[in-house]
Amino acid sequence: MTTSIQLEALFIREIDRCYRRIGECEGMEAGLGPNFDPKVRAANDRDRDRAFIALRRAMKALKELRSEVAAEPTPVEEETPIPALPQIARNASCPCGSGDKYKRCCGRHAPPLPGNFGHGTRPNIAPTGS
């Protein structure tokens, strides 16, 4: 199966070949001078016309290929999930090795726990006996 890069290289080579052929035809016409056979001129014109047709086709195909490649969505690399860090109890010793409790060392700057923990709120529980 050919990739778009290989096809693009193929079309570019074809375009270069067409330009070379057109240049050869024009050089041959210039080299013939005023006294040339009309059959030779007609053959040269046919060759040049064929090269122009091939050039237009190759350029059109290259343009279409590039527009198709641009329209294709680029594959998005999946993000690797960040592994969850193990939960450290507040009263455990700090993993940094300082010897202090986690809550007084690195836990002091840790983000707050989700929920209403430690904010002075208590659940509203009615006394059972009365």
Order of helices and strands: HH
Biggest sheet layout: none
Mean pLDDT: 77
Estimate the strand proportion.
Answer: under 5%
Give start-end ranges of low-pLDDT stretches: none
Considering DSSP H and I runs of 4 or more, what fraction of the residues is helical?
A: 40-55%
Summing up helix and strand content along with how strands pair, one would put the structural category as: mainly alpha
Shape estimate: rod-shaped
Number of strands: 0
Number of helices: 2
Rg (C-alpha, Å): 39 Å
N→C terminal distance: 85 Å
Main attributes of the structure:
2 helices, 130 residues, mainly alpha, single chain, rod-shaped
Structural overview:
The mean pLDDT is about 75. Helix 1 (about 5-30) runs antiparallel to helix 2 (about 40-70). The chain is about 50% helix and about 0% strand. The protein has helices at about 5-30, 40-70. It has a domain at about 5-70. By secondary structure, it is mainly α.
Short description:
This protein is 48% helix and 0% strand. The protein is mainly α and 130 residues long. It has a domain at 4-71.
Give the topology, please.
Elements: H1 4-32, H2 38-71
Helix pairs in contact: 1-2
